[in-house]
Amino acid sequence: MTEISCPYCESKFQDKEELSSHIDKLHIGPGLLEGDSRKF
After folding, report:
1. Please, which contacts does 6-9 make with residues 24 or more away whose CB atoms are closer than 8 Å?
2. Where does the record place the C2H2-type domain (predicted)?
3. Closest CA to 19 of 6, 36, 9
4. Checking phi first, is residue 33 left (phi over 0); if not, alpha (psi -120 to 50) or beta?
5. Phi-psi bin for 23: left (phi > 0), alpha (psi -120 to 50), beta?
6. Taking the model in full, what pTM does it have?
């Protein structure tokens, strides 16, 4: 099975969905869909 690495911190993930969730939560922060409207 192929592991995918986070481009920011090199953490390993099993699929793109896990990686996407990790990046959104740790590196980008919550967005409008999660209820954070400070940036908008």
Report:
1. none
2. 4-32
3. 6
4. alpha
5. alpha
6. 0.64
Q: Which residues pair with 12 in a beta bridge?
A: 5
Residues in the chain: 40
The residue among 25, 21, 23, 20 whose CA lies nearest residue 9 is 23
Q: Are 6 and 19 in contact (CB under 8 A)?
A: yes
Instruction: Give me 12's structure tokens.
Output: 């390993």
Q: Residue 16 is which amino acid?
A: K
HEC secondary structure over 1-40: CCCEECCCCCCEECCHHHHHHHHHHHHHCCCHHHCCCCCC
What CA–CA distance (Å, rounded) separates 17 from 38?
A: 25
